[in-house]
Amino acid sequence: MPTNGVLGNSKMGAESSNNNTDKPLLIYLDGALYDISPFASKHPGGRKVLEKVSGTEVNKFMRGEERIMGVKHAHTDAAFEMLLKYDVSKEHELDPIISSKRGILGQVGSLGNDYWRWIHQPYEGTLRLFDSSLLEMCTRTAWWIIPLFWLPIVAIFTIISLYDLYESMGLFTGAIIWATFFIAGVLAWTLTEYLQHRFVFHWVPSSKSPAKLIIHFLIHGIHHKTPMDGDRLVFPPIPAIPIAGFFLLIYSNIFPWPIFCAFGSGKLFGYVMYDCIHYYLHHGSPRPTTHLHFQKVYHNNHHFKDYDVCNLWNLYYAMGSYFLNRWNGSSIIPSSVILYNSIILCNE
After folding, report:
1. Is the dihedral of CA 105, 110, 112, 118 positive or negative?
2. What is the pLDDT of residues 277-290, one digit of tens each?
3. CB of 27 closer than 8 Å to CB of 49
4. What is the dihedral of CA 274, 279, 285, 290, to 10 degrees?
5. How far from the centroid of its chain's Cα atoms is residue 11's Cα?
6. To pair with 207 at 20 to 30 A between CA atoms, which of 115, 179, 332, 346?
7. What number of CA atoms fall less than 13 Å from residue 290's CA on the CB side?
């Protein structure tokens, strides 16, 4: 793929364009993952047919058992054999970055025009970022570390806020003020996450700048390259501390102390909820047809189909609608409407 020799697969070099935003077109056949983007323009049925089934298992379609866009077509043995050369696992075997036993972060910068497509060809294993074992350890975090580390801080801020508000306003009024700013903090985190995911995580770095490629890979590209690496699904506390401290410093100069504690604890709680749910969307098994099941489907589409979709915002919307329906004891907002609006928000 690359002309600079970083990857060893000549097929990719011959057939990918110089467009930095070229992305894979992934399908599954009998559990194996194939990137058919180089073949899409040559497909006799047209590219749109392949895009329609991207990110899904195509066994029944290729065997003519189900319709695609109104058409049934049983593919020949030759078509199945042709598909084999697009097997992503074979590309991974030939990829010197993936097979490297050393830290790969520096090598990512040399991918150039191939970077965007490379990070969107998911690798099921794990990749070492740094040669230093200490730095590497700081990039890997078990999901339970997040609530264990941050929830005590949330509890301390909450207790301080409630105590000060009770002393100055009384129990009822103090509790209302605390709840108002705690919820505001949760909503502030939701907006922050949406904006950073859309405009920072999915910023397209210049393919001519190795430094920008490395920065992008470090903040989010690694997650798309190894979406099932369980120790890289939540943000490590060590780099999170100065970031959280920066924002808390700003808020402490805006709000009175008890309000700051309520707002800050809400925002931290929103972050903890987000990170834990994000982990669950990758490794959890929600019951089919539930809201979390649909969110898991949407999030997997984000990794295997709609790479540019910022789909974490819709999780909060769908959950909020779900709890509103439960609270009212009826389905005031039909599930179809909830999911439709979730998709609209997701694809804004």
Report:
1. negative
2. 889 988 888 887 88
3. no
4. 20
5. 29
6. 346
7. 11
The amino acid present at 142, given as its one-letter code, is A
Q: CA 229 to CA 232: how far, in whole Å? A: 6
Residues 6+ apart with CB under 8 A from 131: 102, 103
Name the residue among 93, 133, 120 with its Cα closest to residue 7. 93
Burial of residue 267, with CB atoms counted within 10 A of its CB: 0-12 exposed, 13-18 middle, 19 or more buried: buried
Which structure tokens are listed for 131?
A: 């040669």
Mean pLDDT along residues 315-343 = 44
Angle between helix axes 257-283 and 145-169 (nearest 10 degrees) is 150
Q: Is the pLDDT higher at 30 or at 253? A: 253
Compute CA distances 26 → 5, 231, 289, 348, whole Å. Answer: 24, 24, 24, 23
- 321-345 residues labelled b (16+ CB within 10 A) or e (exposed): bbeebeeeeeeeeebeebbeebbeb
Inform me whether the pLDDT recorded for 339 exceeds 70: no
Burial pattern 221-246, b for ≥16 Cβ within 10 A else e, equals bbbbbbbebeebbbbbeeebeeebee
Do 189 and 248 contact (CB within 8 A), yes or no? Answer: no
Helix intervals (H) in 233-256: 237-252
Cα angle at 225 between 91 and 107, to 5 degrees? 75
pLDDT, position 240: 92
Average pLDDT over residues 126-149: 93
* Integer angstrom CA distances of residue 78 from 49, 84, 89, 99, 229: 19, 10, 20, 31, 35
Residue 317 and residue 114: Cα distance in Å, rounded?
35
126: closest CA among 99, 94, 106, 107?
99
The secondary structure element, H or E, covering residue 29 is strand 26-29
User: How large a percentage of the chain has pLDDT more than 90?
Assistant: 37
> Residue 320: what residue type?
G
Backbone angle region of 46, left / alpha / beta, with phi > 0 → left and psi within -120 to 50 → alpha: left
Name the token pair of 294: 């649909």
How high is the pLDDT of residue 68?
A: 77
The residue type at 328? N
Rounded average pLDDT over 311-320: 48
